[in-house]
From TrEMBL:
Protein biosynthesis keyword on record: no
Annotated region described as Disordered, given as residue ranges: 244-265
Organism: Sinanodonta woodiana
Regions annotated as coiled coil: none
Lineage: Eukaryota, Metazoa, Spiralia, Lophotrochozoa, Mollusca
Domain B3/B4 tRNA-binding: from-to ranges: 297-474
Keyword Repeat: yes
Name under which the protein is recorded: B3/B4 tRNA-binding domain-containing protein
Length: 545
């Protein structure tokens, strides 16, 4: 006779949303008469905890519990997980740690809303691709027998904790830099021999544990034993800078010669994406003067110019706008740490001034609007919209997308970037101006990043934006164009130009330096400098080195 448990009967009768079954009493019942499969009929459950028991089998009927958001099955004797678990599309927390699992179904990594996944303390030798876990924040795969991190791990942009200690992992990819929100990384007691310097670009990382690995770099190994995260990241950052400087000097000339030879021979030389830094032109370079007033409001600003941009290709303009939105959500922390603004360079009037103005005096034509409005009125309107949205969604606080308004809550003056003709073209972190907005016809962009946190944040956001611009194809093709008739590409005439490319997928971005000056005209910062844009995955050409 099938087991019937009072807890299950009561949960069904009262249509309960939560059920907890754990401990020795549950184990005894399972051993004597089996598990009560009536649990799988409780389709109203959103929380199910079956832990610390002798349970060795999870039925495929688990897929019927489609409303479950938290499923806790730790400290049992489970030897397998049915593929039907993938039907739990609302799942946010799954804990199957400390069981006897040797493998997992592909469906374990199909949950669109999952926040936390804990599979530690099993006997897993492989792991399905996690690329579909787009919402995951915490992943614990510690104490298994994994030889590598799961495929797709570096695509998880929201991942903040990765615990993978006590496995057999032998490599950490430089792509770790893509995990911009990573705050905890535990790879202790694995088989690592080095750590990619790119890890130092994970600016949120506060806890790094890589003890118990045999590193080739003895100095780094000694730092590891001291277990001071900041010291480790500083060391890695220095290595990264040295690599960048080394690749930027001498090698580029040799590389260009190789590229030319390959093209002459009819071979294709595999090229990396490149950023070519254009030195600040002393006669006509763009400068921005920072006034004392803005220093107490939003003191940090970094700018650069990107030239020879083509936004007319299919979806290119849309992709660039989407990229900025995505970076505001991720590396800019919903604009809390930094804000990006882009301007059509042809609309810019020199010289520019970064200043602070009283809210009623600040006048701007916001994006997508035609009329000028005061900073005071604009912020007031946005606050009303945020409050209406909060009430509509029945929340206790305003949504994350409006959190940046709090940065201005106690400010007597508002920060702004002012054109040479006196017009405000940017009001960070709120908006930039309709008058200087980019369009599909834009070919040169002034990029502005501001922050109230620190200058390093501005630079890292700018670095990331430029890297991503290359990824979405906003640069020129790396191969030199050769026109058979010596004419200009696209010129009218009967002769058709022949364009030859060495490597059609490799991109080159032309980035011109912009200087930030104080009121006396002394330079505060220039971007990009020799210490910026340090990357192991792209080439950086600095002709002024």
């Amino acid at each position: 006779m099938a087991a019937t448990w009072q807890e299950v009967v009561t949960a069904k009768k009262e249509n309960r949303r939560e059920l907890t079954l754990n401990g020795q009493d549950i184990s005894r019942r399972i051993d004597e008469s089996g598990f009560d499969n009536g649990v799988y009929d409780l389709i109203s459950l959103n929380f199910l905890d079956i832990s610390d028991t002798s349970m060795s089998e999870l039925k495929s009927d688990i897929g019927r519990l489609v409303n479950v958001t938290s499923l806790i099955l730790c400290n049992n004797q489970l030897v397998s997980i049915p593929a039907e678990i993938g039907s739990l599309t609302k799942l946010k927390v799954l804990n199957i740690s400390n069981n006897r699992l040797k493998d997992l179904p592909e469906s374990i990594c199909s949950f669109p809303e999952i926040h936390t996944l804990n599979v530690s303390m099993n006997s897993l030798t492989s792991f399905p691709s996690v690329s579909s876990l787009s919402s995951i924040h915490i992943l614990n795969i510690s104490n298994n027998q994994l030889k590598a991190l799961p495929d797709g791990i570096y695509d998880l942009e929201h991942l903040s904790e990765l615990r993978a200690s006590s496995n057999q992992i032998a490599e950490l990819s430089p792509d770790i830099l893509n995990l911009s929100r990573l705050s905890v990384l535990n790879l202790a007691n694995n088989k690592l021999v080095d750590i990619p310097p790119e890890l130092s670009m994970c600016t949120k990382l506060k806890e790094l544990d890589v003890k118990g690995n045999k590193f080739k770099d003895r100095r780094f190994g000694k730092l590891v034993e001291q277990c001071q995260t900041k010291s480790l990241l500083d060391y890695l950052n220095n290595l990264l800078k040295k690599e960048g400087q080394k690749s930027g000097k001498g090698k580029e000339k040799k590389k260009r010669n190789k590229d030319k030879t390959a093209a002459d021979d009819g071979d294709v030389e595999e090229l990396k994406n490149m950023i070519e830094v254009l030195y600040f032109p002393s006669d006509k370079g763009l400068t921005i003067t920072v006034t004392p007033a803005v220093l107490s409001v939003r003191p940090y600003i970094v700018c650069c110019i990107v030239r020879n941009i083509n936004l007319q290709a299919t979806n290119t303009f849309k992709n660039f706008i989407t990229l900025q939105t995505k970076l505001h959500e991720t590396v800019c922390q919903k604009r809390q740490s930094a804000t990006i603004a882009t301007h059509d360079l042809n609309s810019i009037k020199k010289p520019l001034t970064y200043d602070a103005m009283f809210p009623h005096a600040l006048q701007i034509v916001p994006l997508s609007r035609q009329k000028e409005i005061t900073g005071e009125k604009l912020v007031e309107t946005l606050r009303k919209e945020a409050e209406e949205q909060r009430k509509e969604k029945k929340r206790s606080t305003i949504s994350g997308v409006h959190k940046y308004l709090d940065l201005l809550a106690d400010k007597v003056q508002y920060p702004c970037l002012i054109n040479g003709n006196g017009q405000v073209i940017s009001f960070p972190p709120i908006t930039n101006s309709e008058k200087t907005k980019i369009s599909k016809e834009t070919t040169a962009i002034l990029i502005e990043v501001t922050s109230s946190t620190n200058l390093d944040t501005c630079k890292k956001v700018m670095d990331e934006l430029l890297y991503k611009m290359l990824e979405i194809g906003l640069g020129e093709l790396r191969g030199d164009k050769q026109h058979s008739d010596g004419g200009v590409a696209g010129a009218s005439g009967d002769t058709e130009d022949t364009v030859v490319f060495q490597q059609p997928t490799a991109q080159k971005l032309l980035v011109e330096q912009v200087k930030i000056l104080d009121k006396e005209g002394s330079m505060k910062v220039v971007y990009p400098s020799r210490t910026d844009l340090i990357s192991g995955v792209i080439e950086v050409l600095r002709p002024f080195d």
